[in-house]
Write a structure and sequence with these properties.
The protein is mainly α. The protein has one domain. The protein is built from 6 helices and no strands.
């Protein structure tokens, strides 16, 4: 029964992460659309496709890292408060430091990697824009 619960929990987490990646793709596509004129200008001035891709990948990785750090801080605070109320003030002695560190690092890496994965398609779309078409586009 415990294994069945873990499988369900894994599916729930996997689906929520998939929804997050779709949200990242959507946000980055909107960013590409809003910045089509800037992309066109850069490409007219000689920017290579690779440079345009790198801009969006770096932006997404920074957003993912900042979001992951904020999420980890909030998660640690909630975990600490749960321990505080559950153990009536003995939370400091019972707080799972090493396990928490492992999951913290995993969350930071996963959040950043998923942000980069979510930005790959929008970055590719931005790199393949024709400069003249991108500069003509009205948003």
């Amino acid at each position: 029964n415990l294994d069945e619960m873990r499988v369900r929990q894994l599916w729930l987490v996997s689906l929520s992460l998939l929804v997050c990646v779709v949200g990242i793709i959507n946000a980055m596509l909107m960013s590409v659309t809003e910045r089509s004129r800037e992309i066109g200008t850069m490409k007219c001035l000689g920017a290579l496709d690779r440079f345009v891709v790198e801009i969006f990948i770096i932006e997404s990785s920074m957003q993912g890292l900042v979001g992951s750090v904020v999420g980890v801080i909030l998660g640690i605070m909630v975990t600490f408060l749960m321990f505080l109320f559950k153990y009536k003030g003995l939370a400091v002695h019972a707080f799972p430091g090493l396990i928490l560190l492992k999951y913290t690092l995993f969350a930071l890496v996963l959040g950043t990697v998923l942000s980069v994965v979510g930005a790959l398609y929008p970055a590719y779309v931005s790199a393949k824009m024709e400069p003249a078409e991108a500069m003509r586009r009205e948003v």
